[in-house]
């Protein structure tokens, strides 16, 4: 369980880094303290249990996904199908966001929830192709085996398209940076519009948790796992995770937000063909 706690700490560090890049390094912590003291706001005829399920299940999905993430040879819950488990928890996050948007009985929240579902339909196929490409090259769905299969050459080097597609889909999974349309200002915050107090804090914690877990999974998939000079394997994994996480956090204020129709167009016309082609090239090489 230490690995899960480390990823939780990295999620907090990501929030702090986001504040620092905005010139307000202490702002995330002040906002967290404020939300803990703010009374929950409930809209008329809201489905409170449904909203709470959506809010709470988002960080739970991130924590469950973290169980199969290896730090070197250490993993909280080793699984031969770690890739499948990670992808399944990602789908749970879809339901979490939609439930949080639907349950508050608000047009803004509902629009945000449906935006995330549309975004999921756009990024999920190229995301799955990127995961399958790494698993195909390693002949395994076990994240530890995939990391060990990169001895001498990282998958990010000889399958750069799959790596790039994975990073894009990781940002979309956490509705982050160019893909934060589900919580966009044009719909008063979307899914977040009617969430307040502890509910909003827990939901945002889940968002940062997803970002941290997606960054950590990139390490065994494409960056050689815990392989590296001088440092032990269990330390190289969080170091590489920090590098990927910092890159994703940096994109938040550096890239424009994509409108949902344009995001879907890019996914279907660029990301899916590119990821399929990359997967075919890898299949030809390894078979």
UniProtKB/TrEMBL annotation:
Keyword ATP-binding attributed: no
GO BP: aerobic respiration
One Pfam match: NADHdh
GO cellular-component term (any): plasma membrane
Spans traversing the lipid bilayer: 50-71, 121-141, 153-176, 233-251, 263-286
Entry-linked PANTHER family: NADH DEHYDROGENASE SUBUNIT 1, NADH-UBIQUINONE OXIDOREDUCTASE CHAIN 1
Protein's UniProt name: NADH-quinone oxidoreductase subunit H
Organism: Actinomadura mexicana
């Amino acid at each position: 369980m230490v690995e899960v706690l480390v990823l939780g700490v990295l999620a907090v560090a990501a929030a702090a880094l986001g504040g620092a890049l905005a010139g307000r390094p202490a702002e995330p912590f002040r906002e967290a303290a404020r939300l803990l003291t703010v009374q929950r706001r409930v809209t008329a005829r809201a489905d409170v249990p449904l909203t709470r399920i959506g809010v709470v299940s988002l960080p739970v999905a991130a924590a469950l996904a973290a169980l199969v993430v290896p730090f070197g040879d250490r993993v909280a819950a080793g699984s031969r199908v770690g890739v499948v488990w990670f992808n399944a928890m990602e789908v749970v996050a879809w339901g979490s966001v939609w439930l949080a948007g639907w349950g508050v009985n608000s047009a803004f929240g509902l629009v945000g929830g449906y935006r995330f579902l549309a975004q999921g339909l756009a990024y999920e196929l190229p995301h799955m192709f990127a995961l399958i490409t790494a698993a195909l090259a390693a002949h395994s769905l076990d994240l530890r085996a995939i990391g060990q299969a990169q001895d001498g050459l990282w998958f990010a080097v000889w399958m750069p398209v799959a790596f790039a597609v994975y990073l894009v889909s990781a940002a979309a999974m956490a509705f982050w940076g160019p893909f934060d349309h589900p919580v966009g200002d044009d719909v008063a915050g979307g899914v977040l519009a009617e969430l307040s107090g502890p509910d909003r804090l827990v939901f945002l914690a889940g968002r940062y948790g997803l970002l941290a877990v997606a960054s950590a999974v990139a390490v065994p998939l494409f960056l050689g796992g815990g392989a590296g000079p001088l440092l032990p394997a269990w330390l190289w994994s969080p170091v590489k995770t920090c590098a990927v996480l910092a890159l994703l956090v940096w994109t938040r204020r550096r890239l424009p937000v994509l409108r949902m129709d344009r995001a879907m167009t890019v996914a279907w016309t660029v990301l899916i063909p590119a990821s399929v082609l990359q997967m075919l090239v890898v299949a030809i090489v390894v078979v």
